[in-house]
Design goal:
The complex is a heterodimer of chains A (111) and B (117). With 111 residues, chain A is mostly beta strands. Helix content of chain A is 0%, strand content 47%. Helix content of chain B is 0%, strand content 50%. Classes of the chains: A mainly beta (111), B mainly beta (117). Chains A and B meet through strand 3, strand 4 and strand 8 of A and strand 4, strand 5, strand 9 and strand 10 of B.
């Protein structure tokens, strides 16, 4: 799996957009970008994933650069409950493909 | 998303005893399940990959005789920590994939916190 680089921590004001960056310069053509988050003492929660097109769902938007070497997860209106560690992971999209976690970004949403 | 459930959520045991943790996929058949371990203030570390009906594949440094994994059905995998010691105290998390509409995303259980006294 390609290695990813994320800032260790970020802060965001409640109600504002949170933009979490991720670098994955060695991503392969068949690898997707996945985002998960982990709220303290819980299992990770799937957020979104994409290959090369931008994606949006009810939780977030994923913007992938044209060269696919970086991406940004956008939480459009952050709430206090979005405080969590956010993990950006690249892997092939098959059910048996492992998910390897890096250190992630600790996002703190402040009131 | 698909639901993965773990049981128990918390367990305390004495040193030298064995503890079994169950991981169930509630609304899909999981052809592959993964077991992770997470120590305080650290990221998740993959321990092993299990496919239904076959032996688990363990990551380097994980003792297969200590962490017994059974994936006997498409909806259940178990992790047994044998002869537990205090250093085995950790947060154990399972994940599963393989639903009919799966596009590769893994779904995680709530985690099981093991404390060995």
């Amino acid at each position: 799996d390609a290695k990813t680089t994320q800032p260790p921590s970020m802060d965001c004001a409640e109600g504002r957009a949170a933009n979490l960056p991720c670098n994955h310069s060695t991503i392969s053509g068949n690898e997707y970008v996945y985002w998960y988050r982990q709220i303290h003492s819980q299992g990770p929660q799937y957020i979104i994933h994409g290959l090369k097109n931008n994606e949006t769902n009810e939780m977030a938007s994923l913007i992938i650069t044209e060269d696919r070497k970086s991406s940004t997860l956008i939480l459009p209106h952050a709430t206090l409950r979005d405080t969590a560690v956010y993990y950006c992971i690249v892997r092939v999209a098959t059910s048996g493909s492992r998910l390897t976690f890096g250190e992630g970004t600790q996002l703190t949403v402040n009131p | 998303g698909a639901v993965v459930s773990q049981h128990p959520s918390r367990v305390i045991c004495k040193s030298g005893t064995s503890v079994k943790i169950e991981c169930r996929s509630l609304d899909f058949q999981a052809t592959t399940m993964f077991w992770y371990r997470q120590f305080p203030k650290q990221s998740l570390m993959l321990m092993a990959t299990s496919n239904e009906g076959s032996k688990a594949t363990y990551e380097q440094g994980v003792e297969k005789d200590k962490f017994l994994i059974n994936h006997a059905s498409l909806t259940l995998s178990t992790l047994t920590v044998t002869s537990a010691h205090p250093e085995d105290s950790s947060f154990y998390i399972c994940s599963a994939s393989g639903g009919a509409s799966s596009t590769g995303e893994l779904f995680f259980g709530e985690g099981s916190r093991l404390t060995v006294l």
